[in-house]
Predict the structure.
Amino acid sequence: MFNFMKLIQNENMKIYRRPGTWVMYGILVLMLLIVGMFTKFLLDDPSGQVTGADNNAQIQVTIEDEVVMNENWREAVHSKNIQLQMLIDDPSIPSAVKDRYSQEIIINQYRLEHDIPPVETKSYWGYMTSTVNLISLVTMFTIIVAAGIVAGEFSWGTIKLLLIRPVSRAKILLSKYIATFIFALSMLLALFLFSFAFGGLFFGYSAIAQPHLVFASGEVIERNMFTHLFMLYSLSSVELLMMVTFAFMISTVFRSSSLAIGLALFLMFTGTQLVHVLSQYEWVKYILFANTYLVQYVEGTPIVEGMTMTFSIVVLAIYFIIFNALSWIIFQKRDVAA
Amino acid sequence: MIVTPVVSINNLTKVIKGKKIIDDLSFEIYAGEVFGFLGPNGAGKTTTIRMLVGLISITEGEVIIKGKNVAKNFEEAVSEIGAIVENPEMYKFLTGYQNLVHYARMVNGVTKQRIDEVVELVGLSERIHEKVRTYSLGMRQRLGLAQALLHSPSVLILDEPTNGLDPAGIREIRDYLRRLAAEEGLAVIVSSHLLSEMELMCDRIGIIQHGKLIGVQTVNDFVNGEKEVLIRFQVDDHELASVVLKEHYPNKKFNINGEVIEVALEKEEIPKLNESFVNKNVKVYGIGQTSKTLEDKFLEVTGGDKIV
C-alpha cells in the first residue's frame, strides 16, 4: 500500500511540475474573477430596483443595497406566484412541469410567511451558485490531464522505462486514474475556495446564513445553503467523472492525447444537444449524455419522460464499467513497441 | 561448482500478425560478462530486448532471470533487471534528479544516498538538478544508465548504448560497462549493429539475423576461429599461377586481382603451394595474410545484404 502511494506521488509530480497545469488553475481563478465582476458591475438587476444613477452608489455600499432588495423582494415573489398560477391553468403544459410549478408556489408562499428572501443573482449565494457552472471548465481541464496522462508516456517514449519496474501495469494505470481525480478534486476545491473568497469580496458575507428551501415529501424544508451547494457540486461532478473516464479510456486505448481531448470535448459540448434533438425517441434515454446531467431530477424535468434518478445511475454505472474495463484490459495486454 | 546463468533464454519466439519476428532464440548469459547482441537493423534485437524486460508478450518459449520467469513472475524477475530500451527517453520537464526520484519510488529500498551514489558514478553530479530538456544526448545516456543502475540489478540491458555518442563518450561507456561486469559481477547485455564497437566491448557475441540466432562465440574465437585463412600471393604471371592452383586444388575458389591471387588455405598448405609455384616458374614476390576483421566476418555471416 505504501508503495502505491508513491506511485500516486509520482503521477502528481508529473502533473504539477508542468507549467501547463498551473495555467489551468490560473484560468479558473481568472474566470471566477470575471464572473464575479460581471455579476457585480455589469449585470442588470432582474428585479429592477437598482437603475441608472443608483448603479454607482451600489458599488460602494453593498450592505445598503441588500437592504433595498430585502424590502422589495416580497412584491416580486408575489407576482411570480401569480404568473406561475396562470401557467398551471394553461392546459397545454405537461403535468410534470405543472407539478414543479405548484411546488415553486408553495416554496414562495413559505418565503413570504417566514420572511426568507429568494437568492438574487447579484448576491453572495447568487454568485456562489452560478459559479457551479464553472465545473464544466474543471471538467475540460481534467479531460486534458486525463488525455495526456497515459498517451503522454507513449509520445514521450517514457512508457518503456515506466513499465520495466517491479510494479504491475494495473497498479500503474490505477495510480494514473486516481491522480487524475485528485487533480479534479483539487480543482473543485480551488473553485469552491476562490468563489467563496471572491463572493465575499464582491458581495459581503452578510447573507451567508440564508437557508435554501426545498420541497420534499409534501412540505417545505429549510436547508443549509452550503449543503445545497455541496449537492450541486456533487451532481455536476457526475458529468466530470464520466467524461474524464471516457477521455482516460481513449487515451489508453489509442495512445493519442489529442484524439482523447478532441473526442471527449466534442461529445461533451454536442452530446446534450444531440440528446435534445433526438428526445422524441425512447432509446435516447440509454445515451450517456441523457443521463449525465443529474441536476435535471432535482431542479427541472428529465429529457425523456419516465426517466428517474435510479435509472440514470444504473445507465451511468454501466458506461463507467465499460470504459474502465476497456482501459484496463487493453493497457494490460498491450505490446509496448516503438 | 556449476555456474548458473543469470539470464536464460529458451526457445524464445515472437509472432506478430502471423509473421515470425523472433524464431526460436536460445542462449544464456552469465554473471560478470558483457554479452553483445549483434545484428543488422531490423534483425530483431530490440524485439528480443522488449521481450526480456516484459514490454511485449512472449509468443512461445521463456525468459528466466535468476530463476524467475519474466512472463509468469514479472515483478520479481524485472526487479533484477536494469535497462535502457532504445533511446533513454526521460521526463524532459523534470530535472535529472527528479527523474531518478521517480524511478526510485517504484522499487523498494533505494535510499537518497543510493541516488547520490549513482549520480556520482555516472558523472552527472554537476548538472543533476537541471531540467533534462537542457541535457545533451551523452548526458541523457548517462542519466539512462543511472536509472538502470539505481536498484542494483543483476542484469543490465542496454539497447544501442553508444548510439549518438561522440568517440570519447563511446569509450567512456565501454570502459564503464567492462568495469561493471568485472568488478560488480553484473551480467551486461548490449545490442548493437556497430561491429567494431562490439569487438572492443564484449566477451561474447551472439549474431542475430531475420530473427534467428546464427551463432554465439567468444570475441577471440570470432576473429580467429577459422582454420582456413585468406592468403594473398603476389606473382608475375597470374595466368600461369591459376593453372598451377587448379592442378593442386581443383575445387578451390580463388580471386585474381592484378598481380595478386587470393585463396583460402590452411596453415600447412601455404609453403606447399609456394613450392609448386616456384617449381613451375611462377615468380612469387610476396605472400601475405589478409586478416579478417569482425566486420568481414559479420558481413559474411549475415550475407551483407541487409546492412544499412
Notes: The two ends of chain A are 32 Å apart (CA to CA). The longest helix of chain A spans residues 169-203. Residues 47-68 of chain A have pLDDT under 50 and may be disordered. The longest strand of chain A covers residues 211-216.
